[in-house]
Structure formats: structure tokens, C-alpha cells
Design brief:
CATH superfamily: Class II aldolase/adducin N-terminal domain
Largest sheet: 8 strands, mixed
Structural class: alpha+beta
Number of strands: 8
Order of helices and strands: HEEEEHEHHEHEEHH
Strand order of the largest sheet: 4-3-2-1-5-8-7-6
Helix content: 40-55%
Strand content: 5-15%
Oligomer: single chain
CATH architecture: 3-Layer(aba) Sandwich
Radius of gyration: 17 Å
Number of helices: 7
Length: 219
């Protein structure tokens, strides 16, 4: 079986999406790219994560040809592959239906960056990509364009959330950071007040600190 360890990571992330309340059943989709072979492991379409085994996951090459796996890949294949084609820094894509983040996709309002720890992972307000029909090349294009050259999170209008990262752990951590920020912003607004958002400059500075200095080191 090709890329067994990576398949297990993708499946674990899917199960975590259910546990963390950012997807139900077969909602959303997850992929990870092997940096050595360039092959992509991606979840199949319409099968709940808790019914999958590692061998059920799909393996595709850079041209979207399926090289292993018994099931068809997710209908949002284009949404994943466009990032791998355009962004050398991206090796994982997580598409969830995170409910609090999706509120901002319904309002068509960028999510303000109100938490320092989220700013470190995301680097600024989370943009909302304009509505395009799910499963199309068009939704893939507008999402990747909204992320830009280095963005790690995009909310999809009327749909959900996409996060990307250099590995699956980082991409999924970003999913949770976006969802937690959205939840707390909504809670703050429910008091009748308004969130105090970090400036774009401070968010960028926190992101830079995280990328350059947040790593283990011996005393």
C-alpha cells in the first residue's frame, strides 16, 4: 500500500474533524502531499470518516490520475489540487464545514483577527472567497486566489472553510484556530459589544515571530 503513514494521518484528521465538531458524517475533505514523490493522499467521496480504513483512501499523481485506492476521490478534488499546483509551500489541505467560521461565509464578512495565537497561524483577517458552486474548477480558482501567495485560511461563501499548511498537523491546527476565533468573535458580539481586532501590521508581525522563532530548543 502506497504512503501508508500519510494515509493514516489523513484518516486521523478526518476523525478529528468529527470529534472537534467541524464536520459531520462525510462532510468536508482532507488531503496531504508526499514531498518526496509528489503523490497526494485524499479522502474518497461520500463515505463517513468513521467507516474508512487507510486502504480506502485515494492516491493521485500531480495530474489528478488515481494510482491507488478503490473509491472515487472527493468531489472537491479541484479545490485541493489547485493549491498543490500553485503553491510549493502547501503540502496539506483541509476543507471543513466549521459552523462558526461558516457564519462569516453566510454574512460575506472577513473574519477579523482577534486572537494572538490565531494571528501566529494565519497572519491576518480571514478572507471570504466569492460563491461558486461546490465541486467545480471555479470554486477552486476563487479560493486559491483569495488565499494569495502565502495565505493559510479562506472562508467559502455559503459553504465552509479551507485551510492549508506545510503539513497536515499545521493545516488542521489552523482550522481549529479559525473556528475558535470565529466562535469568540460571535460570543463577543452577542454581548452587544464589538471585538477588538489586531491590526494588519501586528498580525503580520506575530506571524513572522511564529515562523521564525516558534520551535523547540534545548535550554
Amino acid at each position: 500500500m502506497l504512503l501508508e503513514a500519510l494515509r493514516r494521518q489523513v484518516l486521523e484528521a478526518g476523525l478529528n474533524m468529527q470529534k472537534d465538531g467541524v464536520a459531520r458524517g462525510a462532510q468536508g475533505n482532507i488531503s496531504a502531499r508526499d514531498p518526496h514523490s509528489g503523490l497526494v493522499v485524499i479522502t474518497p467521496t461520500a463515505i463517513p470518516y468513521d467507516q474508512l480504513k487507510p486502504e480506502d483512501l485515494c492516491v493521485l499523481d500531480a495530474d489528478r490520475r488515481q494510482v491507488e485506492g478503490p473509491w472515487r476521490p472527493t468531489s472537491e478534488l479541484a479545490l485541493h489540487m489547485v493549491f498543490y499546483a500553485r503553491r510549493a509551500d502547501v503540502h496539506a489541505v483541509v476543507h471543513s464545514h466549521a459552523p462558526y467560521a461558516t457564519v462569516f461565509g453566510i454574512l460575506l464578512e472577513p473574519l477579523p483577527m482577534a486572537l494572538t495565537e490565531a494571528a501566529m497561524l494565519i497572519g491576518g483577517a480571514v478572507p471570504v472567497a466569492p460563491y461558486r458552486r461546490p465541486g467545480t474548477e471555479e470554486v477552486a480558482e476563487v479560493t486559491c486566489a483569495a488565499a494569495g501567495e502565502a495565505g493559510t485560511a479562506v472562508i467559502l461563501a455559503n459553504h465552509g472553510l479551507v485551510t492549508v499548511g506545510g503539513d497536515l498537523a499545521r493545516a488542521y491546527e489552523t482550522t481549529l484556530a479559525v473556528e475558535n476565533t470565529a466562535r469568540l468573535v460571535i460570543m463577543a458580539r452577542s454581548t452587544g459589544g464589538r471585538e477588538s481586532a489586531l491590526s494588519a501590521e501586528e498580525s503580520a508581525a506575530l506571524r513572522k515571530i511564529y515562523l521564525e522563532k516558534y520551535k523547540p530548543g534545548r535550554a
